[in-house]
């Protein structure tokens, strides 16, 4: 089964559920260190993974906190060849987690240093240069945050990118997709003044 970069699919690690349990415990431990609290992992409800530069594991966890069971979404980024493991996100979920099917809320956060995200940012930079009639070219600074979803084999990206022109920093929100031939198309972009 081919995995699309950035596409979210059910964990192949279900065969080695010990790995998933270890990732889940790691996520809870990291969260507890940051928040200085002691919720316990009750069980892993769902595990999905996303191929990025490494693997981003999306875990839905049932956590026991002060006798109450709560659902949390955890994202753990793993790059085995670098012995790298990092908790990206740990958020409380009010409802039981469900798969989103095309209602527009299927975007998942992706690491900003992911090669596909950097490629998307470069596409925005090129478009910006073409549309700008300024003597000063825009310079890429960083991707502030990025989200991606896969719809019908197309990867869609929602990114916030910081550029520099002359001495001024400017941020742009961009929505773009990559077609099945790997070509980026900018759907919408707007300067972010926040």
Strand order of the largest sheet: 1-2-3-4-5
Decide which structural class fits the backbone.
alpha+beta
Number of strand elements: 10
Helix segment count? 2
State the order of secondary-structure elements, H for helix, E for strand.
EHEEEEEHEEEE
Q: In the CATH hierarchy, what is the architecture of the largest domain at level 2?
A: Roll
Mean pLDDT: 80
Please state the overall shape, judged from the principal axes of the Cα atoms: elongated
CATH fold title of the largest domain: Nuclear Transport Factor 2, Chain: A
- Which stretches are poorly predicted, pLDDT < 50 over at least 5 residues? 95-104
What's the helical proportion of residues? 10-25%
Task: Explain how this protein is built.
This protein is of the alpha+beta class. The protein has 2 domains: 8-97, Roll (Nuclear Transport Factor 2, Chain: A), CATH 3.10.450; 109-192, Nuclear Transport Factor 2, Chain: A. 19% of the residues lie in helices and 51% in strands. It has 2 helices and 10 strands. The protein has helices at residues 17-35, 115-131, and strands spanning 8-10, 40-52, 54-65, 68-79, 84-93, 108-109, 138-151, 154-165, 168-178, 184-192. A 5-stranded antiparallel sheet has the order 1-2-3-4-5, covered by helices on one side. Strands 6-7-8-9-10 form a 5-stranded antiparallel sheet. A hairpin with a 5-residue loop joins strand 9 and strand 10 (184-192). The radius of gyration is 19 Å and the shape is elongated. The N and C termini lie far apart (42 Å). Residues 95-104 have low confidence and may be disordered.
């Amino acid at each position: 089964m081919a995995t699309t970069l950035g596409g979210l699919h059910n964990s192949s690690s279900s065969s080695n559920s010990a790995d998933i349990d270890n990732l889940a415990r790691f996520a809870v431990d990291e969260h507890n260190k940051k928040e200085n609290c002691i919720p316990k992992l009750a069980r892993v409800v769902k595990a999905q993974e996303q191929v990025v530069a490494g693997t981003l594991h999306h875990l839905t966890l049932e956590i026991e906190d002060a006798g109450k069971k709560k659902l949390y979404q955890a994202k753990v980024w793993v790059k085995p060849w670098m012995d790298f493991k990092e908790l990206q996100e740990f958020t409380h979920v009010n409802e039981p987690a469900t798969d989103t099917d095309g209602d527009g809320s299927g975007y998942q956060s992706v690491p900003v240093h992911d090669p596909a995200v950097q490629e998307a940012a470069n596409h925005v930079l090129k478009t910006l240069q073409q549309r700008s009639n300024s003597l000063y070219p825009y310079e890429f600074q960083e991707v502030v945050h990025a989200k991606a979803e896969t719809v019908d084999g197309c990867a869609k990206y929602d990114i916030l990118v910081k550029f520099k022109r002359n001495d001024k920093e400017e941020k742009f929100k961009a929505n773009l997709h990559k077609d099945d031939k790997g070509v980026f198309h900018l759907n919408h972009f707007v300067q972010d003044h926040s």
